[in-house]
Write a structure and sequence with these properties.
mainly alpha; two-stranded antiparallel ribbon; 4 helices; elongated
Amino acid sequence: MNEIDRIPRFLAVLATILCGSWLYGRTIGDGPVLQAHVDQQRIDTGELSFEEIFARGEFLFAAKFNAFDGQGRPGTRGDGAPRVPGSAPRFIRTSAPEANSCAGCHHDPFPGGAGDFAANVFVQAHTLDPVDSSTDAALSNERNTLGMNGAGAIELLAREMTADLIAIRTAALTEARSGNVDITRAL
């Protein structure tokens, strides 16, 4: 088969690929990683099992977000000043977001862990917009990415403790006001 005979075959294969993608609704490029959100009420009411919640959290932690999911800087600068809509840079290594997924930084020795040197974060650099120098100690503090394993349980414990402490304070204030006396409670 000579070169001229190969051209129609090549064009036929190319047309099949392009038309096949069009016919089946395929598009080139990103789509949203998150197809649906979990309503907090489904968790609170026990509709979702612990295993389902854990699996969804694991997926969310490893999901590589893109522009369809809202990847990029938010509608405010790092110092809280508002931005003109659409003016935010999509990705700045030194002032966030540093990666397109949680696991992009928290991966050592497995997702949820710490990060290696290349995944270091620049604490407080996000307050500069844009960052002029991430290595200047007066502007930021480079630190290793923290391990997150177990952080959820610690946060839940802190929430429970906070709720308990608020309940003790509320009861003590009510008693103090009703009796017009000082009240002391053990924490």
